[in-house]
Each structure stands twice: as C-alpha cells, then as structure tokens.
C-alpha cells in the first residue's frame, strides 16, 4: 500500500455524530502543495481546488445534508427523479454508494463552499467509517465534472467514466482495507486468519507465545485449528505462553479511544509521534532505533498504511521488545515482523475457499457459481529469511483476480506460471487472495420447486445430486439445506427425504443430507425430498406480530406518520424498514429475499481434500533462503457462502448480462 496515503479518518455513530476523527498533517501538507501547483497552472480557471479540510462540525453537517439529499447514508447509487446536479447519484453509478463526496459549507465564512472526494464509506453498525485518501487535484476535478454533466451513466470502456477514473487510483483499495480493519477493531471482530494443522504439543518459542501454537502435523491426524494462548510476560523480560483463550476475537470497543488511537498511530505512523508513543519504555525506544528502519523506508510516508495486523500492534504495545529481537546489523526488519521467531522451524499453508452459487434450473437464466479464496500462511522461521514458491497451473485454475500481501514479490510471470518470493510476517497472515470459477463443477446441483396450492398451503420438491464428478480424496464432510420462511409461520409439515433427517422451526425447515462424521468421498449421491407445508393465515400472523413487543415495530398509533414518511424521500430506507417491521420482528429481516414470491433454499456444506478452483501449492517446491531444514505442510478447506437454490416455479432476482459481441463493440 505504498501508493496509499490517508488525509483524514472520521467515525460517526448512528446519531450522525462524529465520535472519532484523525487528520494526517504531513499528508495535508502534500495536498496543499499539489493544490497550489494545480491552481497556478489553471490558466484563469474559476474552478479552484480547495486546500481545506472540514472540522468535525462541518463534516457532520455535510454528511447529514447528503443523507437527506441522497435518501440514506449510502445514497441511491443511480440517477432518480430526486437526484440533483452535483450529487453522487447524478453520476448514475452504483459505486457512489461506497465512494462518496461531500459539499462542505465553511462555518467561519458564510457562503463559502468546497468539495471533498473520494470518501470511502464503510458501514459497520452502528458506525459509519469514512476514509479520505490523497489523490491528485486533477482527479477531484474529473469527478466534479461527472457530477455536473447532462448525460446519464457510464459506457463500458469509456475513458472519462468513473470506473476508468478509479482504476487510476490504487489508494481506493488501500482505503477500503483501512476502513474494514478499523471496523473490525471498533466492533471487536478482528480475527487472525486460520491456518490448519493437526493437534500436537507446542513447539514453543516467542511466536507461539504471541499468536498461539498450532501443533506438529502428523500423517494420521485430521487438520484442526488450535486456540491461541494468551501471552504473559515472565520474570526474565521475555514472553511465555499461558492459559488458552476462549475466542480468537480481539475485544476492542470505540469507547476505548486510546486503543483505537494506538492502532492508527502504529498502522499509519506519525513519524516522531510514533517514536514518542514508545518512549514510555527506554528499552523499547532503544530497540526501535537500533533495529535500522524498523518500519522500512516507507516510514517517511507518514499516513501510509504499513501494517494493518491488529495482533502485531497489540502484542507490541503489551509486550514491548527485548534485545534478542534486534535483527542482524546488515538486515532491515520490516513493519510486518516486529518479533523474531525462535524455535523449531516449519511452514504451514492453508487454502480457504468459499463457494457462491445461484442455481435457477431455467433455460432463460443461466446458473452462476464462483469461488473466493485465500492462501493463509504461518512461517515459523528464525531470522529474516525469504521464502519462494511457484504458483503453477494458473491458467487451469480458472482464476480471475489475484492480490498479494505487501511482503510478497512476484518475480516471474507466464501464461501458466508465476514465481513469488516473500519475507514472512509474524504469526498467521493472508499471503494471497483470489477469485475465480469452480473448475470441478458445482458440488451440489439440482432444483427446488415450491407451488402454492392455496394461500396457506404449498407442495415442494427437491432433487439434488451431490459431488458428481468428484473423486477421492475429496470429501464432503457435511451438507445441510434450509428452507427459510421468515414472513410465514409454519403450523404443519409433511415430507420424507430419500436420505438424511428433517427438523423444523416456526419459520424454517432444515434438511441434514450429510451429517458430520458420515462424510462422502469418491462417489456421488442423489437425494430427493418431496413434501407439503402449511402456514398460519396471514391475518393471524399480522396480529400476532404486532402484539409482540419488539424494537422498531410500528403500531396503529404510528399510522399518521406513515404518509409523511412516504413523501419524505430522505427517509426512504428507514421507511422501507418500518414497512417490513409491520409484519416482522427485527430478527426476521436477516432473509430479505423472502419477500412476496422470492422463495429459495440455502445449502451449507464443507469439503476437504482439494480446492474447487484448482489452486494448489506443492510443498516440495517451497524453498527457503538462507537454507534451513523446515518441513512444509499444505491443507485445504472449502465451505459454502451464499449457495442458493431459487424456486423454479416462482420469481427470482438475477443479473442480466450483455452478449459478448455487444460488449466488444462498446469497448471499441
């Protein structure tokens, strides 16, 4: 993320109040110099770029005004009747729901306005996190022209389109990473990437004490993650392992402002402020100064995200450093490796893949299936070694997108081969992220039909085939299918599946096709499930839902306000939620696609033994320099994401794609 510098960060609560903000003065100095040069070269252009940043009060006012103008915090995302020139929705691009602009009214000088963009918006309830990266003034002018042009939308391949502009701004990707990490920190959802190995005694060492031991792998044991032990300082100043933690989540709340400030100051250091923060311990400060470019040469780019690993930053704050953590004099210690590992050496790779699918079983709508994956790594290596490995079979792995950890360098490119080298961080980390297609075909395919024979009674049929074309050692460990009916209460159910067991609740039917401990491998199975279902009458449901005391429900006393909300487009999302809450308690809003005739079934499964994309790592091809004896272990794990079977007999949402010939003509 060397090309990403952050100008400012704001965090707002659900009352649209700024609860935290941070401005990077060094980055602002660079922005002011760039604006000065741009304004001097504008040749009398009246459209001067403002060098200012809003204070918290001005920012809040502008954010509330945009929320009213655009209908919600995110906005419409496309041009509607209510859109006005200069607004984000006027650009007519859905990305404006995530990358927004604000029109700032200067409080000190009445009538003076200026424009800030691009603000990356990440909503992590109940907070809105906004990141303003540093861009060139010409980029700001380009977007401002888009907000005022008369035509609507962007054509594919158009040079002056918003997608083309964003492709020229790598800081947008970095800002999204910063926003998501801050969201994890303030909500306590920061979790280390999972690396799998078999359960065995700990190998010890400082790294185990900080991030937890996974254990020595064995040939017979099944791969399992092991909880991380809590790091406890010992009397000698080192770190030793203590009791195991009940959860891998790192607890943090926005109320702990010092913790958030510490994270931001460490991940995007302020230069001298960063050193002074550590000066509370003379030993720590000495260690940093002696480690020779502890944060690498990029520390000169104040406000540049260096290390977004909250585990590393927390460990540094709690445990500090010792003299044994100082690297050799002729080597630089990168930001992502604040500690040096000592102990038995090994390297663990785990590929996690998530399969997403929309199965329609229709001639007019093609099925859609995709894979999102990541290569997690844990390199327990002494010193600061380099690890290299080839990524073979990329053309046959059906990969579309590849991104790498900042520690990685891609040295060799080819049609079917990429060689990469990396200096591994401390603990578990994500080495590669990718997206692609399922090269082996869908692990679960078939159809779902639900026909309502009356308003309250329906007949359904499932016909599925599992693991067709999959060979051993690929194993489906479990498979479960769920039919959710959040808007209807089930009062009776009758059905007999050909395999598995059935359980029901008031609002769902669950079919356990393959249970844990009885996985299938080396064969495919066919499963059918016919049945009938009966729901409570809608009128009774509505009365019972209104009678339940649930937060957000609207009663008859609120009916006078409903017509007012309809006419107030600024409350469009709040109004929709209110309309939904008339019949549903808030917990049922987790299934938004079950409105009207949008019926579906969700499949959940877990597969081990291989990846769906074909991505793989050969442990024998992994090399370490300087050469050490370090065994390499490779494991895989595949799970389902939103794997949906849409009702063949009902309505269903889908994305219409233009023919390939039409796309090629537009690109020309």
Automatic annotation (TrEMBL):
Domain (MHD): residue spans on this chain: 344-608
Alphabetized Gene3D superfamilies for the sequence: Mu homology domain, subdomain B (2.60.40.1170)
GO terms (BP aspect): endosomal transport; protein transport
Subcellular location: Endomembrane system
Keywords per UniProt: Membrane, Protein transport, Transport
Membrane topology: Peripheral membrane protein
Broad class of the protein's primary localization: membrane
Listed Pfam families: Adap_comp_sub
Gene Ontology CC: one annotated term: late endosome
InterPro entries (alphabetical): AP2_Mu_C_sf (IPR036168), AP5M1 (IPR039591), MHD (IPR028565)
Membership in a protein family: Belongs to the adaptor complexes medium subunit family.
Protein name listed in UniProt: MHD domain-containing protein
Native species: Papaver somniferum
């Amino acid at each position: 993320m060397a090309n990403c510098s952050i100008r400012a960060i704001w965090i707002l609560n659900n009352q649209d109040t700024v609860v935290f903000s941070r401005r990077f003065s060094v980055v602002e100095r660079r922005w002011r110099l760039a604006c000065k040069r741009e304004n001097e070269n504008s040749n009398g252009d009246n459209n001067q770029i403002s060098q200012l940043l809003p204070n918290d009060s001005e920012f809040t006012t502008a954010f509330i005004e945009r929320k009213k103008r655009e209908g919600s915090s995110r906005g419409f995302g496309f041009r509607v009747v209510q859109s006005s020139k200069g607004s984000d929705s006027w650009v007519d691009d859905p990305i404006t729901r995530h990358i927004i602009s604000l029109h700032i009214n200067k409080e000190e000088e009445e009538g003076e306005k200026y424009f800030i963009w691009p603000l990356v918006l990440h909503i992590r309830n109940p907070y809105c996190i906004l990141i303003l990266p540093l861009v060139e003034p010409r980029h700001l002018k380009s977007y401002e022209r888009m907000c005022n042009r008369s035509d609507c939308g962007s054509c594919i391949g158009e040079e002056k389109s918003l997608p083309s502009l964003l492709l020229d701004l790598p800081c947008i990707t970095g800002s999204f990473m910063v926003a998501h990490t801050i969201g994890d920190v303030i909500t306590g959802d920061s979790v280390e990437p999972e690396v799998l190995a078999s359960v065995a005694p700990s190998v010890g060492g400082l790294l185990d004490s900080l991030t937890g031991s996974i254990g020595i792998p064995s040939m017979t044991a099944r791969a399992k993650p092991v909880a991380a032990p809590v790091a406890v300082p010992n009397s000698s100043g080192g770190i030793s392992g203590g009791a195991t933690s009940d959860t891998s989540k790192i607890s943090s709340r926005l109320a702990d402002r010092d913790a958030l400030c510490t994270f931001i100051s460490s991940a995007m250091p302020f230069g001298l402020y960063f050193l002074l923060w550590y000066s509370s311990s003379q030993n720590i400060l000495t260690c940093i100064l002696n480690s020779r470019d502890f944060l690498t040469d990029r520390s000169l780019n104040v406000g540049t995200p260096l290390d977004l690993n909250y585990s590393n930053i927390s460990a540094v704050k709690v445990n500090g450093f010792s003299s044994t953590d100082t690297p050799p004099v002729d080597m630089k210690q990168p930001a992502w490796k604040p500690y040096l590992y000592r102990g038995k050496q090994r390297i663990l790779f785990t590929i996690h893949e998530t399969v997403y699918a929309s199965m329609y079983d229709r001639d007019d709508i093609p099925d859609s299936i995709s894979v999102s994956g990541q290569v997690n790594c844990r390199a327990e290596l002494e010193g600061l070694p380099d690890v290299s490995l080839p990524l073979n079979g990329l053309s046959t792995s059906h990969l579309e997108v590849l991104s790498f950890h900042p520690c990685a360098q891609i040295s060799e490119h080819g049609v079917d081969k990429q060689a990469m080298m990396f200096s591994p961080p401390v603990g578990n980390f994500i080495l590669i992220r990718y997206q692609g297609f399922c090269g082996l075909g869908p692990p679960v395919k078939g159809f779902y039909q639900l026909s309502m024979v009356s308003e309250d009674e329906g007949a359904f049929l499932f016909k599925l085939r599992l693991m067709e074309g999959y060979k051993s050692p690929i194993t489906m460990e479990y498979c479960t299918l769920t039919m959710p009916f959040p808007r209807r209460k089930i009062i009776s159910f009758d059905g007999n599946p050909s395999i598995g067991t059935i359980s029901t609740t008031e609002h769902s039917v669950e079919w356990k096709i393959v249970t844990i401990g009885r996985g299938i491998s080396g064969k495919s199975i066919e499963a059918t499930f016919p049945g009938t279902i009966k729901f409570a009458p809608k009128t009774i449901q509505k009365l019972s839902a209104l009678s339940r005391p649930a937060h957000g429900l609207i009663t008859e006393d609120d009916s006078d306000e409903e017509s007012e909300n309809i006419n107030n487009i600024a409350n469009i999302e709040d109004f929709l939620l209110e309309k939904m809450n008339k019949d549903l308690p808030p917990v049922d809003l987790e299934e938004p696609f079950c409105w009207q005739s949008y019926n579906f079934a969700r499949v959940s499964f877990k597969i081990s033994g291989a990846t769906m994309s074909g991505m793989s790592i050969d442990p024998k091809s992994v090399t370490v320099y300087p050469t050490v004896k370090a065994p390499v272990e490779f494991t895989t794990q595949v799970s389902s994401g939103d794997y949906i079977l849409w009702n063949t007999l009902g309505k269903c949402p889908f994305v219409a794609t233009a023919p390939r010939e039409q796309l090629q003509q537009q690109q020309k």
